[in-house]
């Protein structure tokens, strides 16, 4: 994998990867709908709106591996999710197929499985239980990845990212946090690992309170360096109530909730 495209390159994770992957590959092509800093050595800019098939395809010419981060990273009204995450991710995989891209790393989310009870540890094979329209778009992205892996032989890794932050901000994030350097390492492992067809991984640091089992992470050599527990003492009173306390998805489960928590198994 020599020629890498990052979508959503102007965003929080994209900017971290831009710095962290600098010099690791002969070409890092950076794409976003927002303004990006000027290209440095080994970089190219390819501004593109994911809703625009032709622009996405143009950005992908000559690329071996795409790291797809672009889109809406939170709950939002349906039209916004539809355009950026549903149509945008379709355009991304379709362009990858047309351009002969070998591998796509898709930024999925823990919110694809957010309505599983947090009292239960979950693995990569639990049923989808999205906690939001945003979570639905990530279930859909994982399904698209499976389709393009099976039907077109593209190698696909779906990263169910937990909480990417400078440091964990509440009790839940003591389980879900991923540090900047662990995120860079995880994406590098996904890019560099030899042949795989379809993987689902949780994007988390080496957290003592982890509630997700992550067998594919070890298989591709991911060895996280950071542990959210180092911040635990300062977060003792940052607890949650209601659905946010009951489910893996945290506060996303409370958004627009009209059901009773006890009705959710
Ligand atoms: N940050 C986290 O904790 C976290 C957790 C789980 C999943 N994720 C996923 O990781 C990815 C990156 O997250 P982030 O925190 O860096 O978000 P971010 O909002 O900082 O970055 C997303 C980028 O996507 C771009 N974008 C949005 N719509 C676009 C469009 N139509 N065309 C082209 N670009 C568009 C934005 O301009 C932005 O720069 C997202 O897909 C998000 O769902 C993030």
What does this protein look like?
The model has no long low-confidence stretch (mean pLDDT 97). Helix 1 crosses helix 6 (180-192). The protein has 265 residues and is α/β, with parallel strands linked by helices. The strands form two sheets. A seven-stranded parallel β-sheet has the order 3-2-1-4-5-6-9, with helices on both faces. It has a two-stranded parallel sheet with strand order 7-8. It has one domain (3-263): Rossmann fold, CATH 3.40.50.720. It has helices spanning 12-20, 53-60, 78-99, 133-152, 173-176, 180-192, 215-219, 243-246, and strands spanning 3-7, 27-31, 43-45, 65-68, 103-109, 155-161, 163-164, 177-178, 198-203. Nicotinamide-adenine-dinucleotide is lined by residues 8, 10-14, 32-34, 49-51, 69-71, 73, 84, 88, 107, 109, 161, 163-164.
Describe the structure concisely for a colleague.
It contains eight helices and nine strands.
Morphology call: globular
In the CATH classification, which architecture applies? 3-Layer(aba) Sandwich
Number of domains in the coordinates?
Answer: 1
Strand order of the largest sheet: 3-2-1-4-5-6-9
SS summary, helix count: 8
CATH topology grouping: Rossmann fold
Which class of secondary structure composition applies to the elements? alpha/beta
Ligand identities? nicotinamide-adenine-dinucleotide
What is the number of E strands? 9
| Strand percentage | 15-25%
Q: Kindly state the percentage of residues in helix.
A: 25-40%
Radius of gyration, in Å, reads 18 Å
On the 0 to 100 scale, the average pLDDT is 97
Largest sheet: 7 strands, parallel
Text of the CATH class: Alpha Beta
């Amino acid at each position: 994998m020599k020629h890498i495209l990052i979508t959503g390159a102007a965003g929080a994770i994209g900017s971290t990867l831009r710095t962290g992957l600098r010099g690791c590959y002969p070409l890092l092509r950076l794409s976003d709908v927002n303004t990006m800093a000027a290209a440095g050595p080994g970089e190219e800019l390819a501004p593109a709106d994911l809703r625009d098939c032709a622009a996405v395809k143009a950005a992908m010419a000559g690329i071996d591996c795409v790291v797809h981060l672009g889109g809406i990273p939170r709950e939002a009204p349906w039209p916004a999710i539809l355009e950026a995450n549903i149509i945008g991710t379709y355009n991304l995989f379709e362009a990858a197929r047309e351009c002969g891209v070998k591998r796509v790393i898709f930024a999925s989310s823990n919110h694809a499985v957010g309505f599983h009870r947090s009292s239960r540890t979950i693995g990569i094979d639990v049923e989808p239980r999205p906690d939001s329209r945003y979570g639905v778009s990530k279930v859909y992205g994982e399904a698209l990845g499976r389709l393009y892996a099976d039907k077109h032989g593209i190698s696909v890794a779906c990263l169910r990212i937990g909480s990417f932050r400078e440091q964990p901000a509440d009790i839940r994030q003591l389980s879900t946090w991923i540090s900047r350097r662990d995120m860079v390492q995880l994406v590098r492992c996904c890019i560099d690992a030899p042949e795989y067809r379809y993987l689902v991984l949780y994007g988390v640091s080496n957290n003592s309170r982890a509630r997700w089992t992550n067998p594919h992470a070890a298989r591709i050599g991911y060895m996280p360096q950071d542990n959210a527990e180092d911040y635990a003492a300062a977060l003792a009173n940052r607890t949650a109530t209601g659905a946010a306390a009951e489910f893996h998805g945290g506060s996303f489960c409370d958004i627009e909730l009209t059901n009773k928590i006890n009705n959710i198994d």
